[in-house]
Structure to design on (252 residues):
């Protein structure tokens, strides 16, 4: 059974005090997760250790929001997967549209990051998604398939199953505009099909595909209920205790 994941993406938000009280609030809600249900918190680098200490319940994990493609060395300002591993971090968000847009991260560069994360047993939450102009041109399925092909399809069948994919239409991120649950399902089914063509149905069926883009407490249940949607990657609503608690409880 593939994992159902509520993943928080805090982005570059919160001071340490606010970050601590957000996590305290979520922990005190006492949601126990078991089996294939997971909550993951992608926090800013300076808070990784604090978050790791606060979140110790089963099936709760801390993620980094990025990593560099090299093991170590003279790369001022970068963070290696070796550092993340030394902090016992198990997940890293890669290829978020903000990194693709503001830091020019390409599909081939992301392939290098995916490789090094897997080498250090850190699960990439690999983001993909189209802009509004691509959606309006109707070429979104091919565009997103290409993102997967160029960053992930060099992986073996064993390794591709270690990846979590997050489909995030750029036009729905932080805009309050959510894809309808039908639009999300349609893209997720298309991606699963692309994965199945390359790796077979069984492998494709084991890969979690999260939806991201203005997920909130009021729409999470409906979006997550779609057969190929395995939870969400959540920005704005993950900064509010009650919102994110409800989102975790909306996993199917
Ligand atoms: C995101 O940051 O990945 C995201 C989906 O943001 P939001 O939920 O705010 O749209």
């Amino acid at each position: 059974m593939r994992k159902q994941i509520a993943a928080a993406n805090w982005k570059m938000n919160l001071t340490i005090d606010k970050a601590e009280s957000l996590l305290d609030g979520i922990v005190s809600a006492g949601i126990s997760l078991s089996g294939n249900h997971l909550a993951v918190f992608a926090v800013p680098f300076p808070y990784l250790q604090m978050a790791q200490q606060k979140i110790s319940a089963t099936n709760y994990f801390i993620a980094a929001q990025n990593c560099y493609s090299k093991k170590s060395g003279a790369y001022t300002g970068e963070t290696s997967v070796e550092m993340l591993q030394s902090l016992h971090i198990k997940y890293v968000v890669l290829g978020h549209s903000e990194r693709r847009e503001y830091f020019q991260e390409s599909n081939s560069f992301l392939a290098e990051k995916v490789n090094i994360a897997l080498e250090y047993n850190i699960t990439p939450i690999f983001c993909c998604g189209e802009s509004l102009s691509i959606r309006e041109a109707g070429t979104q399925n091919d565009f997103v398939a290409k993102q997967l092909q160029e960053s992930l399809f060099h992986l073996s069948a064993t390794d591709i199953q270690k990846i979590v994919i997050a489909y995030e239409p750029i036009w729905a991120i932080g805009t309050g505009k959510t894809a309808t649950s039908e639009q999300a399902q349609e893209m997720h089914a298309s991606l699963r099909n692309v994965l199945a063509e390359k790796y077979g149905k069984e492998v494709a069926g084991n890969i979690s595909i999260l939806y991201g883009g203005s997920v909130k407490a009021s729409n999470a249940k409906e979006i997550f209920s779609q057969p190929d949607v395995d939870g969400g990657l959540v920005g704005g609503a993950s900064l509010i205790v009650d919102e994110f608690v409800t989102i975790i409880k909306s996993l199917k």
